[in-house]
Amino acid sequence: MGVRLGPGGPKALRLLGGEPLLVHAVRRLALAPSVGCIVIAAPADAVAEVAELLAPVAPVTVVPGGTTRQASVAAALAIVPDGFDIVLVHDAARALTPPELVESVAEAVRGGHGAVIPVLPVVDTIKRVSASGDVVETVDRSSLRAVQTPQGFRREVLEKAHAAAVDDHTDDAGLAERIGVTVHTVPGAEAALKITRPFDLAVAQLLL
């Protein structure tokens, strides 16, 4: 719902440059040569609206999403047609993700990795703090990475990971880790920032 973005409708339908974030995201996905099928998990009361919105952009299938991100991914995954052995999970909030990054993730899965995520180095100094607000330690950031989407998977890996889930995760790669799958990384892209707050929307407008 994009509560942190301020008042308005679902975040994916908020406007950026006069078009919903979802339109920007789908348009860029469709430009990636490896993408042959796009399934959108939409709010249950907006399925028809989203299908109509995207009809001029790219061929898509729209399904009612769940109450959590994980449930929405599972709902979309369940109707991906047979024959698609690689599945990418993407957030509409990363509306300006370049097609080249989409292709990079797909290519890494095609190259033999069961799960792949795009990442960026963490540039800020990271502190671990206590409940009272005191610094406990300074974390070595040299091995830390910020995760982006799309995340890519062999289809059987993603299906197995979701089937084995016992609690809610906001990250599909985390589900894959839980079942013992090694998650590979590829370089992310600055343009693939997640639009969460009004500040992010302003940055995305500048990028656009």
How would you characterize the overall build of this protein?
This protein has 208 residues and is of the alpha+beta class. It has helices at residues 21-30, 47-54, 69-77, 99-110, 155-164, 172-178, 198-207; strands at 15-16, 19-20, 39-42, 61-64, 86-89, 115-121, 126-129, 135-139, 145-147, 151-154, 183-187. The chain has a single domain, classed as Spore Coat Polysaccharide Biosynthesis Protein SpsA, Chain A (Alpha-Beta Complex). 32% of the residues lie in helices and 21% in strands. Helix 5 crosses helix 6 (172-178). The radius of gyration is 17 Å and the shape is globular. The chain starts with 14 loop residues before the first strand and ends with a helix.
Which architecture does the CATH hierarchy give at level 2? Alpha-Beta Complex
The count of domains is 1
**N- and C-termini, Cα separation:** 23 Å
Radius of gyration: 17 Å
Compressed to H and E, one letter per element, the order equals EEHEHEHEHEEEEEHHEH
| Low-confidence spans | none
What does the average pLDDT come to? 94
Number of strands: 11
Main sheet: strands, sense, barrel: 5 strands, mixed
Q: What's the CATH class, please? A: Alpha Beta
Please state the overall shape, judged from the principal axes of the Cα atoms.
Answer: globular
- Counting DSSP H or I runs of 4 or more residues, the number of helices is 7
Strand content: 15-25%
The computed structural class is alpha+beta
The CATH H-level homologous superfamily? Spore Coat Polysaccharide Biosynthesis Protein SpsA, Chain A
What fraction, in percent, of the residue positions are helical? 25-40%
CATH topology tier name: Spore Coat Polysaccharide Biosynthesis Protein SpsA, Chain A
